[in-house]
Design goal:
Largest sheet: 9 strands, mixed
CATH superfamily of the largest domain: Dihydrodipicolinate Reductase, domain 2
CATH class of the largest domain: Alpha Beta
Oligomer: single chain
CATH topology of the largest domain: Dihydrodipicolinate Reductase, domain 2
CATH architecture of the largest domain: 2-Layer Sandwich
Strand order of the largest sheet: 14-13-12-11-7-10-9-8-15
Number of domains: 2
Structural class: alpha/beta
Shape: globular
Length: about 425
């Protein structure tokens, strides 16, 4: 891991992005839940199109009016799916599609866009989020929010600006809206398993070839890395951050705060070829909260392993377990969720649309920053082999994984981390 040009803050210097015109323009008014909310997307991947469809279906009067991406084939595939599933809500003509690294700036410059959905690889999100709030847009942002501490600090700054501008930022931690999670958390708060003794955040999966694609001869280094973004730490944060962030967020939710220290181990045992970029395939990280409560995060992407994706919460009077399909408590006061379980996606997007229409902003950006930093700190500890304090990572680390410039062309892949040799930055 190496420090990258900390003085490069193009996203803070893009006054041409919105200009004085946007800064002075009045926001669109949404009265009584009846006005149309016009949506634009930045990013057109598989998860992104699912988010768009969920948003469009979450409430009446929501339309997709513009799309941005790096690749036309991604836009075409997304539009084909959306026009099949929600044809009446897609209002995107060819003139409404923009391509390129600066395409998001053109989206933000449109006066008819109320809500921008940031669905790009995570490495791009902090500067795009900053620009979106600066342009006065409401924002949906997928998780994780960043890939390094410099990006996390940018998110916190963006969150403060969103509050000042009264803009919503809803983030892709949809489990916070799922009924089985909500009921379980309340039962934990009510003491149903006694005092907490241990939290587990598990994403032990077998997705060995996650987003893998054979590199085509015509692809530059940059195009290959962006198309296969999960395999590159500067784009994904590694799968420990990109996937486990959901369960780390739940752990922080249960604990009522963020960890103060962590220590991780892990490596690259199965996916060792250069086609798999520079990420690890297994992690195990021990955290500790300020009150001494321990939490373990475990994540794998190895084919053939026994899988388990959930949160487990241990207490003095019982044990709770929850995932997107169930919730239960075993112990002195057993309980099982009997309602309709949900991923929380529809409820999340409905809450965002409602906040825009009612003029009651929701800002979840700090929560996303904290959950993401929990993952980043664990990854840094694992990559370096060093125990890590939260305050150092949040305030002092200068790690910035972004490349010097965004353009199609050569981009060497960073070295695979070696615990005990890779240095803290």
């Amino acid at each position: 891991m190496s420090e990258q040009g900390l003085s490069r803050r193009s996203f803070l210097r893009t006054s041409a992005l919105a200009g004085a015109t946007l800064a002075a323009s009045a926001p669109r008014v949404h009265a009584a839940g009846s006005d149309t909310v016009r949506v634009a997307t930045v990013g057109a991947g598989d998860r992104g199109v699912f988010d768009v469809e969920s948003c469009l279906k979450s409430a009446p009067g929501v339309e997709l009016v513009a799309m941005a991406d790096l690749f036309q084939d991604k836009v075409d595939a997304s539009l084909e799916r959306l026009k099949k599933n929600v044809p009446e809500k897609v209002k995107v003509a060819s003139k409404d599609v923009v391509l390129g690294f600066d395409a998001y700036k053109k989206i933000l410059a449109r006066d008819d866009v109320d809500l921008v959905m940031l669905l790009t690889p995570p490495g791009f999100r902090p500067e795009m989020a900053a620009a979106a709030i600066e342009a006065g847009k409401h924002l949906f942002m997928e998780k994780p929010g960043a890939v390094d501490p410099v990006g996390i600090r940018s998110l916190l700054d963006t969150s403060a600006k969103a509050d000042a501008k009264k803009r919503s930022i809803v983030v892709g931690t949809q489990q916070r809206y799922a009924p089985q999670y909500l009921e379980l958390i309340q039962r934990l708060r009510d003491g149903q398993i006694g005092d907490l003794t241990l939290i587990e955040a598990l994403w032990i999966g077998d997705m060995e070839l996650w987003h893998y694609a054979d590199r085509k001869s015509e692809w530059s280094d940059m195009e290959w890395q962006v198309r296969c973004w999960p395999f590159f730490t500067w784009l994904s944060g590694d799968h420990y951050v990109e996937q486990l962030v959901h369960n780390l967020d739940v752990a922080n939710w249960v604990a009522g705060g963020t960890p103060v220290v962590c220590q991780g181990i892990g490596g690259r045992q199965v996916r060792v070829g250069p086609q798999f970029g520079n990420i690890f395939d297994h992690f195990a990280v021990r955290y500790e909260y300020a009150n001494g409560l321990p939490m373990f995060g475990m994540a794998t992407q190895i084919r053939g392993v026994s899988t388990r994706v959930c949160n487990v919460i241990h207490g003095t009077k019982g044990t709770a377990e929850v995932n997107r399909g169930m919730a239960k408590i075993e112990g002195e006061k057993p309980w099982k969720f009997e309602g309709n379980s949900s991923s929380g996606d529809t409820e999340m997007h409905a809450a965002l649309i409602r906040s825009i229409r009612e003029g009651k902003p929701i800002n979840e950006c700090v929560r996303l920053a904290e959950a993401t930093m929990t993952g980043i700190a664990g990854r840094i500890s694992t990559y370096t082999g060093r125990a890590l304090k939260w305050d150092w990572a949040m305030q002092a680390s200068k790690l910035d994984l972004r490349p010097a410039k965004y353009e199609m062309g050569p981009l060497p892949v960073g070295p695979v981390a070696i615990p005990g040799k890779t240095q803290l930055v």
